[in-house]
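Hi W., the NDP complex you wanted:
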Amino acid sequence: MKTALITGATSGIGKSTAYEFAKLGINLILCGRRQERLDELQNELSETVKVYTLCFDVRDKESVFKSIDSLPHEFSTIDILVNNAGNAHGLDPIQTGNLEDWDAMLDINVKGLLYVSKAIIPKMISQESGHIINIGSIAGKEVYPSGNVYCASKHAVDAINKGMQIDLNQYGIRVGAIHPGLVETEFSNVRFKGDEERADTVYDGFDPLRPEDIADIIAFVVTRPYHVNIADLVVFPTAQANSTIVNKSL
Ligand code: NDP
Ligand code: 8X3
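Structure:
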């Protein structure tokens, strides 16, 4: 039976992935900063698989390493790492961008992903197996107006994904990225700092992806035979052509 560690499991794509993995009988290490949500998930999913929760902020490197080092023996072999925790903070032109937003995006989406990976990759190397799935974004493939630093953070994830593929190739560790377009989650609530009306307008007039759609793809990726590695995948809702073209007449 495999074990997966999912960051950002308290909401959206990460939470849906926890449900999909439970259906596959994959034991879960669920991470996030909201303990009560982790507890709810643990209560529910423990009926199906073994679940352990870790409450830490990916920005806090000491806490990342301490938490992962504290895993009990039965959760210490991590077969699958889903690097999902992340968000956009703000949507402002570069000239008026907020420094705290920039720090948050680079610290969480880039450095946080690196810290968690660094805490787990040596274990995967010594156990001679592992599968890492990095959640990028279409913002890691294109740059859109006022996307500047969020796009930079996701371009970094794209580069880190490729770097991991090269460096971990010799160990037989599978590495791949999934780059979604517009998925309706708490993402826009976070980006617009709780302005729900503004957040809702992002998904008005078309049928966006649901977090379950991405979780379903992640489940597909982890159930391929060992010789198959899905290395890089862009996923849009049908209404979306790129970061800026969304057909609202479908
Ligand atoms: P949500 O806001 O619904 O979920 C984000 C998750 O990240 C939450 O579980 C949150 O948990 C966790 N998280 C955020 N900051 C931190 C932190 N500092 N430390 C630990 N955990 C943190 O958004 P999504 O599900 O949409 O986002 C998941 C990933 O998908 C992100 O990387 C995002 O960039 C990417 N993505 C999203 C798209 C979309 O349109 N929604 C499209 C393309 C990519 P908690 O607050 O409990 O810590
Ligand atoms: C989230 C999708 O288009 O808001 O990464 O950047 S987008």
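The radius of gyration is 17 Å.

W.
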